[in-house]
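Q: what sequence does this backbone want?
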């Protein structure tokens, strides 16, 4: 288990803090509600990533496209989550700590039961990278894991 430094702790807590905004907040109401989640990742080894998402998260391949030019992809789905994995021969790694890289540094999924999710992940040898963190007033319980390529995935639940 990794201990988060002050900057990382702040960044990891941001989605949780956003749930507890003041009732006097004057921002526009949310444009949507959702019951599912989607993210897409560029990966260096498509087969290894497909295997990880199948074995560790229990997703199933719903579409796999053969290589066209230099790119191939697989779309996996399960439990309300859709993940698109893309391999491109010319893709370059971002490198370093994802938190210190501009752009998306983690993705999040809201689950029905955080305790069941954590137990299932542990049974599948997925070790938390951060947490698990218990629920507190205005904040959902959550845990952050890394996939086979080091991408951060945060699970939120009650």
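A:
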């Amino acid at each position: 288990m990794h201990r988060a430094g002050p900057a990382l702790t702040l960044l990891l807590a941001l989605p949780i803090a956003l749930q507890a905004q003041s009732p006097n907040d004057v921002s526009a109401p949310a444009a949507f509600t959702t019951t599912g989640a989607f993210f897409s990742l560029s990966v260096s080894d498509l087969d290894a990533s497909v295997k990880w998402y199948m074995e560790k998260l229990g997703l199933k391949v719903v579409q796999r496209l053969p290589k066209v030019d230099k790119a191939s992809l697989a779309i996996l789905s399960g439990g309300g989550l859709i993940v698109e994995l893309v391999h491109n021969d010319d893709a370059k790694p971002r490198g370093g700590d994802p938190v210190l890289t501009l752009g998306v540094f983690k993705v999040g999924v809201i689950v029905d039961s955080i305790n069941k999710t954590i137990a299932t992940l542990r049974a599948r040898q997925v070790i938390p990278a951060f947490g698990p963190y218990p629920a507190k007033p205005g904040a959902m319980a959550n845990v952050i894991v890394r996939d086979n390529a080091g991408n951060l995935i945060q699970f939120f639940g009650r």
